[in-house]
């Protein structure tokens, strides 16, 4: 196993959702030296698994290794905004990915001091066309 991969999954390191682009989920993980590495997870390879904002890195070892072997495990040199960086929406928070849908939560005022949380999903096959709101009960 590549020493970088071994270091990325050792201990309790956390992988964090970075962004979605071109039918791929991108996660990052920080090594012991403070360097941040990014890897991709093709959505065709996710089945009906829920992909959360954070995982222990070892949980995503399969895709970290695949990214390494495909030369897609890259050190993030500077912060850039990808074309569909939905995780940076100020009001909406990424919740999870499942069955070709990205799910986000957003709080809306519901009266003077109350807030209601709504969840919306964006289907990756029609990301430019469809947003469906579903109230969380």
Textual characterization of the structure:
By secondary structure, this protein is mainly beta. It has 2 domains: 3-75, no CATH class; 86-135, no CATH class. Helices cover 12% and strands 41% of the residues. It has helices at residues 3-9, 61-69, and strands spanning 14-21, 24-30, 36-42, 54-56, 74-75, 92-98, 101-109, 115-123, 132-135. It is globular, with a radius of gyration of 16 Å.
Task: Annotate the secondary structure layout.
Blueprint: H1 3-9, E1 14-21, E2 24-30, E3 36-42, E4 54-56, H2 61-69, E5 74-75, E6 92-98, E7 101-109, E8 115-123, E9 132-135
Antiparallel strand pairs: 1-2, 1-4, 2-3, 3-5, 6-7, 7-8, 8-9
Summarize the structure.
The protein is mainly β.
Strand order, sheet with most strands: 4-1-2-3-5
Query: Strand content of the residues, in percent?
Result: 35-45%
**What is the 3D form?**
globular
Counting helices, strands and paired strands, the structural category is: mainly beta
Number of strands: 9
Determine the N-to-C terminus distance: 45 Å
Mean pLDDT: 79
Number of helices: 2
Rg, Å, rounded? 16 Å
What about the largest sheet?
5 strands, antiparallel
Q: What kind of assembly state do the chains in view correspond to?
A: single chain
**What is the helix/strand order?**
HEEEEHEEEEE
Name the poorly predicted regions.
80-90, 129-135
Q: How many separate domains?
A: 2
Give the proportion of residues in helices.
10-25%
């Amino acid at each position: 196993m590549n020493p970088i991969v071994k270091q990325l999954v050792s201990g309790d390191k956390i992988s964090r959702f970075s962004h979605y682009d071109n039918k791929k989920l991108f996660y990052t993980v920080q090594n012991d030296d403070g360097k941040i590495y990014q890897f991709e997870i093709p959505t065709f390879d996710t089945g009906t698994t829920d992909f959360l904002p954070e995982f222990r890195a070892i949980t995503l070892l399969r895709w970290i290794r695949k990214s390494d072997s495909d030369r897609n495990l890259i050190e993030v040199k500077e912060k850039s905004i990808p074309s569909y960086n939905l995780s940076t929406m100020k009001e909406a928070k990424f919740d999870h990915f499942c069955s070709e849908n990205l799910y986000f939560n957003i709080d809306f005022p519901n009266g003077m001091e109350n807030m209601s949380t709504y969840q919306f999903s964006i289907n990756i096959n029609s990301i430019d066309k469809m947003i469906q709101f579903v109230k969380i009960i």
